[in-house]
Amino acid sequence: YKEVISFSEADYEGVRLPHDDPVVVTLLVELFTMKRILIDSGSSTNILYKHAFDQLKIPTDQRRPVKTPLVGCAGEMVHPLGSIDLFVVTGTTPCQIQVHMT
């Protein structure tokens, strides 16, 4: 089951349509506020860079190995350090969603 995060007409206030600007949000991840999260609807994975992972202070032994490399926009291959499930909260009460994400 996947939770849906959607935007209403009110969210488009001041936006000139059509647009292809990136959408950047702030989320609560493992009780830490993470800012400047890029929403990329074309990606098939959720990426957390090592710097952010280190700041969350999650032990590296919680990562599960990932054998399949990721392919970047320029075609370069990147080998992930692993996969992990994190508790994520988005929105504000009463419109708040709490989910585990990989």
Features:
globular; single chain; mainly beta; 4-stranded antiparallel sheet; 6 strands
Short description:
The chain is mainly β. The chain has one helix at 50-56, and strands at 23-29, 32-39, 70-71, 77-78, 86-92, 95-101.
What does this protein structure show overall?
The chain is mostly beta strands and about 100 residues long. The chain has one domain. It contains 1 helix and 6 strands. The strands form 2 sheets. It has a 4-stranded antiparallel sheet, with no helix packed on it. A hairpin with a 2-residue loop joins strand 1 and strand 2.
Helix content: under 10%
Overall 3D geometry? globular
What is the quaternary state of this protein?
single chain
Low-confidence stretches: none
Distance between the termini: 13 Å
> Which structural class is indicated by helix and strand composition?
mainly beta
**Can you give the mean pLDDT?**
80
Number of structurally distinct domains: 1
Q: Helix and strand string, N-terminal first?
A: EEHEEEE
Major sheet size, sense and barrel closure: 4 strands, antiparallel
Number of strands: 6
Within the largest sheet, what's the order of strands?
2-1-5-6
Give the strand content: 25-35%
Radius of gyration: 16 Å
> Helix segment count?
1
Protein name: RVP_2 domain-containing protein
Organism: Cephalotus follicularis
